[in-house]
Write the structure tokens for this entry.
Amino acid sequence: MKKYLIIICVLIAAVPMLTGQVNNSANEDKSSIWENLKNDRFSDKVLNVYNNEITNNQFRFSRPALFEQQSDKGSFSIGAYAAANTQYFVTEGEGEGLHFVFQNINFYGHSSFHNDKIKLISNIGFDLNTNALRIEEAAMSIEFHPAFQLRGGIILPPMGYFNQNGDTPVSNFIDLPMSSSTIIPPRFSDVGLGVSGYVDLEERMAITYELYAVNGLQNEIVDNDIPRTAIPLGASTNIFRADNNSKLSYTGRIGLHLKSLGEIGLSYYGGAYNTTAIDEIEVDKSRSLNITAIDGQFAVANVLLKGEFVLANIDVFEGFGQLFGDRQIGYHLEVNYPILTAIQLFGNTDNQLDVALRYEKADYNVGVFEQTSTNIFDQTTCLRLGAALRMGSKSTLKANYTYMWENDILGNQAKTGGIQFGYATYF
Amino acid sequence: MRNLTYYVTIISILSVLACNSILPGEVEENEVLDGTIEGLSLEEQIHFGEGDEAFAEIFTSEMGLGPIFVETSCISCHVGDGRGHPFSELVRFSHIDAQGNVDHLESLGGPQLQHRSILGYDAESIPNEANGQTSLLGPPVTGLGFLEAVADEDIIALADPDDLDGDGISGRVSYVFPPDYYEPFAHNISNNEGKYIGRFGRKAKAVNLLTQSVEAYQQDMGITSEFQPAEPEGSNIAPHEPDISTDELQAVVFYLQTLKVPPRRNENDPAVLRGEAIFTNINCSGCHTPELTTTDFITEGLSNKTFHPYTDLLLHDMGPELDDNYTEGSATTAEWRTTPLWGLGLATDAQGGNLFLMHDGRARSIEEAIEMHGGEASNSRDAYSALSAGEQVDLIAFLNSL
């Protein structure tokens, strides 16, 4: 079943190429900043993201391609990226030894036709947990007006910054921030339908939005053996599994994009997640969760700042007592700076060496104990240092150092330190 | 290009340095409670490892958790094998009438409160019929094999129920009826009523580590076993196959038996040595017996060993302040088993950097714990209050070295 769907996705994306003739003429319409960007060389585009020349959403439709074709009927491109690393982590003197991690491989295809009014995007990732290919995204969008596009299919909910823009080569860090991987599920998909668009406010400013109705998350959020409220576990890796309740969830993001400066976004995901009946016997009332995030990334004087703040409220079955948190908070702040640019390497000069610093924190159970009125811990604080050699706009060689303070629910602390070397590249 | 080489070299050097100096180092061995007693064979060490794993196992509803429960693993209440935290307390309740008859309110879910439940079930709350309740925190679970290996006659010899020596301390042996499946060790002797000595639990109700563990699985997590096949009172669930195997249960018991004695720190520090002398002078040692000896037991490493638990395994009347109007076994409501003081200096490591002492964690410092001693311990407590500030500091230094 899954195999056929993957083939179908790729085929749909290939339609315009198969029917069209090759035509390299540039798009005439240069009325908006977005359109201008589309015609840039791609390598510029990654740098553009880096320098905030284009919006998050635009970026996804213009990644480096392995194969790219334009015709009078439309355009088609496919590409991929992959990342691997080697890491050495030690917790209180005890380590797992040096080992290699194949982080991910992700294939994507984009196509557009009817004057770019209809776009298709698909992403197929290799899921390391299930060792299977997973369709992360297979969505179609129809543009009635730049400010109003209909989009549906398997989508990546626009939660925070990373869910849609987690391409490993873009970041100077090997690991995603905790707020975007342990509170917001990392790169999670959902089936849904919605609208999106952008409105130019003036030459250098635009508003972007996305809004979808989706199936929603699942009961594993609290039905797990960590034991902890873990939203990522509720993001089903099996997108074809029937939803466990009959209620829809909603997700959306509104972003303010300031050209050459950055973008700030407010996103939301919410709805019922729990199983209310087992074998047709009612076991619980319907319970919902909602996640709100503010993300931002700004480039000021060559310094790229990224940050995110996430707040999740989860209605948890009373029977679990305070074991499962009903509120989680996470945030991170990242500073990236190129200390060397125009490095000559392998005959190219568009290489740069970045240094980066990230501070992050995730609190999985916000509140105080009923018994003692003291803080419920279950939280992790983390400091990461990174150096990354960005080779062109395609590949990034990364060296990261991590120091982590993990507190169990009572507050007992364990310290972990680690070193990672990684490579992430578009093909 | 030269610049690049320069930076790459710096980064490489830094990361190599980092490996050695910025990765968190190992915790000193005398700072952790986990670890085996000496002299275990390879086979025994493997058995210990299995028990260690089972002790840390987190149960879910699929594995038999609940339907009503208190916590999901042994380790969540016995973090790092140390003292418990009020968050993972056990609450027990009963009704005691004017004649002193104790009703554990079993038909109402007593005596233990299971205040959590799995989906589809209601957790318990304390019924109105209860007129007494207590909160209990887990005592440290280290060195328990040594306590189990103390001969009954040694415990009996420490008792002085009628206070014949006139020191105000009248420790009493806790004689209880063991469960049906109980098999005594060679050094366990029943009294003329057919009761055996209870030595584990805050009220010394459990006769050995097996019965304590069986009860913990069933009462604290709703996990049934061959020995205790029924779900906790108030569960309303049909009889079924045991949730855990006897092998797993036995591995946990072996783990508890062979966990090392809490290591001491700074034991030769002059202040600590002065404190140790004070501890004996003001007769803390009248209950917190510094030294006991084991008899022949299941393995070489536990047999005929002298060890230092700072408990006499006896019940003592601790006065009205510590009387929660709840009891079990043969203890009165004011009686508590002397808590072993070993591992006291490491207590904060398991309690989130705080200190929660006495059966329900009401004491937030060692000083407070001492001041809460009443009843048979009044003389010692008063003697403590009469100490000079310096002597008190020495005594605390000693207690922290345990």
Summary: Residues 32-261+283-386 of chain B form one domain. The first helix of chain B runs from residue 2 to 21.
